Amino acid sequence: MAIKPLFTKGPSQLSRFALWALLVSFSLVMLDTFTPYLKPVRAYIGSVSFPFYWLTNIPARIGEWGEEHLVTRDQLIEENQALREELLIHKRKLQGMAAVVTENVRLRELMNSAELIEDRVLIAELIGVSPDPLLHKVVINKGGRDGVYLGQPLLDAEGLMGQVTEVNTFTSQVLLITDSTHALPVEINRNGVRSIAEGVGDLYRLQLRHVSNTVDVQVGDLLVSSGLGQRFPRGYPVAEVKEVIHDPGKPFATVHAVPKAQLNRSRHVLLVFSKREVLPSLSPDLLPSTPQNKPGPSDPPSSDPRSSNHGSSNRQPIESASPQAQRGTMPIDDFTDITDGEAEI
Asked: Which spans in 35-172 are helix H?
């Protein structure tokens, strides 16, 4: 009679399955992190998951519909009066801005400015937020079919929010400026001092990097995008300085700022498209010549090659293509109809 062993040899089927699943998962993570082979798969999964985002967004849409349609007559009258007053204020500001814009264009032409930037925007809506508290990412309902491209700036009515890091067919992922891996060049609107605003993983706080103790920065200063790096347009509000700490034992001051954008409340956002137009350079022949540069009748021809080229310019005209044209995305002129959720600023 055979004796039944007390212990079975080898791992169980469940243990083997768990081990193989762990190995396959680790391999897929490494493959997706260090190689581009799984990008088409991720794009396909993003397209397939779009209906689920739409379904989970139905309760919020019903709530918005109720807030917009289920109001009293007194509320409508009060809101209408407030909008009329706001419209009058903006009309007065617009009248002054028209003259300022015209004068600015004239000055840029006189100063031989290379580019004028015209920004157009596309209205989008947030449909998802990353559940990881350490990863500040959101999902919007605009993707590759709408002309969205990698690195495109995103902002709300108050200021810059972040940039697009992944584009699918119908949706896109946006990395917020408060993420610990994000940094953008800024400048103090009061005096033009440049710095780098870094995210620290807190939706309500940014930190300026390497600010010297002698730099003129004050509580309440407005930080705007400087345009360096050609990723974010220049002049958009980013944050407001809330705390400046000077420690004699440290070479740099600690500067904390609060983002201007409502990162945890904004639902409707704007995608910015930049269009650069080249101004013609002024011809050197139109510039007045100075007496010391005019050769006299008895002066011999100069042997200096630099003087022989006097009166001519070797500068080539600067050519600039829009980011959309370089990326092969949708033409900018298509984003002009406000009735389709698009606007122009």
From this structure: 39-56, 58-69, 73-110
